[in-house]
Amino acid sequence: MNYSLQLKELWPSVRAGLLCEQKYGALLNNFCPLDHITQELELLNATDFVSEACKKAQRSQGKAKMSPPRHASISSNIKCYTFPRGDITRFRPARPDILGLLNYYLMDAASLLPVLALNVQPDDFVLDLCAAPGGKTLALLQTGACGHLAANDISICRTKRLRQILYNYIPTEIREVVSVTSYDGRDWEQLGGGTFHKVLVDVPCTTDRHSVMEEDNNIFHKRRTKERQMLPMLQLQLLMAGILATKPGGKVVYSTCSLSPLQNEHVIERAVEIAETQFNISVHVEDLSHFRTLFQDTFSFFSDCRLGELVLPHLTANFGPMYFCKLCRV
Ligand SMILES: C[S@@+](CC[C@H](N)C(=O)[O-])C[C@H]1O[C@@H](n2cnc3c(N)ncnc32)[C@H](O)[C@@H]1O
Predict the structure, then answer these.
(1) Model's pTM, two decimal places?
(2) Which of 94, 153, 310, 324 could form a disulfide with 132 if both were Cys (CB 3.0 to 4.6 A apart)?
(3) Which domain range does residue 304 map to?
């Protein structure tokens, strides 16, 4: 009922998408030899949607001399293959290379958008505040740019999965730039505030796709009502910790896999207000609307988001939901 009011005539198709099998992307592991696997994927008609978007940005810059240079905000080191719109072919499981590292990681391709929006630059100190099980951490490492990556998650059992992913995909010498911790992210300020160039705050949310399909431990179950009602507060506290962990001039990307404005735009608005009034920190929301143009061949975007961008599930491109919004600590 709530989402039909928010999304109006779009809701039936979003709902159908949520009720059908989701689509995956194959994030290539740059730490493996890739010639063979890229050939195999291209023979199957899959394409790297990140490099396609980079080419598109370069073409439109050539034509229109857009300023600022928008393609610069996309890391071309990240490679993720998807099947074309309407093609529901599935990827086979990843295989290990001769050194035992897996050659790709299957994930909702929309989950890469927050990482691309963060735009990690060489030697950046990066914090992934809610990192487990680790899909986005892995993508951050694929940029090859992290000077240091702090991957934190409150759940010890989920950080075990994160460590396992790092072990399966990342060579030992690169793993040395990563520190894995299990703190409550809300306390991060006490551990080291104002030290990171880039912070990803991928918060716990109502995980809408999971919630419509899975009975097990469902966040909409009566016994989890209180926890569900408290989510926006927890999200706000985590985002505030993320802002405080960022250096002046640094960037924060906030993301959820929910369609709910209460967990998305409202959290952003409150955080900007609290940063200003309680901490005297000025934060501004960056425009990411060029993402909509660049990635429209792969994802369906909601065009009425007040702040940030939202990928809507759609039967022909069944990724998301994924909300992401980029903030700059001025
Ligand atoms: C959406 S998931 C993160 C997914 C992850 N970024 C990825 O791409 O694989 C949200 C995570 O937040 C963690 N979490 C919940 N409360 C937290 C807190 N107070 N501090 C840090 N992490 C928290 C949960 O354990 C969960 O793993």
Answers:
(1) 0.96
(2) 153
(3) 110-329
